[in-house]
Write a structure and sequence with these properties.
Radius of gyration: 18 Å
Mean pLDDT: 89
Structural class: mainly alpha
Low-confidence stretches: none
CATH architecture: Orthogonal Bundle
Largest sheet: 2 strands, antiparallel
CATH topology: Arc Repressor Mutant, subunit A
CATH superfamily: Winged helix-like DNA-binding domain superfamily/Winged helix DNA-binding domain
Helix content: 40-55%
Order of helices and strands: EEHHHEEH
Number of helices: 4
Oligomer: single chain
Length: about 120
């Protein structure tokens, strides 16, 4: 097994809050599953933690990014609002742009890493 290559990791500050890879993944999973609880399960976190993150995401802008509906005859669920879709798409566009811009530098950093790969030495 080899060592993990250098990678870019970032968060974007929006007002008093921020969005990074974890919140973006939560938004994507809510979009894909229609369920905050299923998104939490897939991320290996408690429903309470996911709810707290969703509230923090909703506080980033002047309109909610996620709407929830309590259970009942229709079973409830969660969905991204237009604001949530725009927030996620903008974050993912920025991530794609930064990944492409950083690729040559990350390759140089990887070449400078003289440590033996995991499992060697």
């Amino acid at each position: 097994m080899s060592a993990d290559p250098p990678r870019l990791w970032f968060q974007v500050r929006i007002g008093e809050g921020r969005i990074g890879p974890g919140k973006a993944r939560l938004l994507a999973l809510i979009r894909d599953t229609g369920s905050l609880s299923e998104a939490a399960r897939r991320m290996g976190m408690s429903y309470r933690r996911a709810w707290t993150l969703m509230e923090a995401i909703n506080a980033l802008t002047d309109a909610p990014a996620v709407e929830t509906e309590r259970g009942g005859t229709r079973g409830g669920g969660s969905r991204l609002t237009a604001r949530g879709e725009a927030l996620l798409a903008t974050y993912e566009d920025l991530r794609t742009t930064l990944d492409a811009a950083a690729a040559p530098t990350l390759a140089q950093l990887s070449a400078l890493d003289g440590r033996p790969s995991r499992g060697e030495g």
